[in-house]
Design brief:
Layout (H helix, E strand, L loop, with lengths): L2 H35 L4 H28 L10 H25 L1 H9 L2 H8 L1
């Protein structure tokens, strides 16, 4: 492999290793502030925030663990569709289930309603 390409990929991986945890922290801080603006009880706020934080941290840890083990690298001889399907299909199922649970939560709904629109746009950007 080209040494310059190798160096660029290492730099991108290092940047991703810093940015991903910062994104999780930023989202969790924003959620905490939105829950506070929703005027929920401290217990409701803490339980909701802890549940979301646990899921996000477990997700990030699982992805990093799988990546370090090489589980996300396609094995030679398998088709590209099969390799992509082993990653995309479980991810789509987990995300769909999580979004279904989140949209049915009154507490999370109250937090989203209480958050200013520009917060939601900024987090997506």
């Amino acid at each position: 492999m080209n040494p310059q390409l190798t160096q660029a990929l290492r730099s991108a991986a290092l940047l991703g290793a810093v940015i991903r945890p910062l994104l999780v922290v930023t989202i969790l801080i924003g959620l905490w502030r939105a829950l506070a603006r929703a005027k929920l009880s401290t217990r409701q706020r803490l339980l909701s925030w802890s549940a979301v934080a646990a899921v996000m941290i477990i997700w990030l840890t699982a992805v990093w663990t799988l990546a370090l083990k090489g589980s996300l690298v396609p094995t030679p001889g398998t088709g590209q569709v099969l390799s992509a399907g082993t990653i995309v299909l479980p991810t789509a199922i987990i995300v769909a289930a999580a979004l279904t649970l989140l949209t049915r939560s009154g507490t999370i709904g109250a937090a989203v309603d209480a958050a200013p629109l520009w917060w939601l746009v900024a987090y997506q950007a």
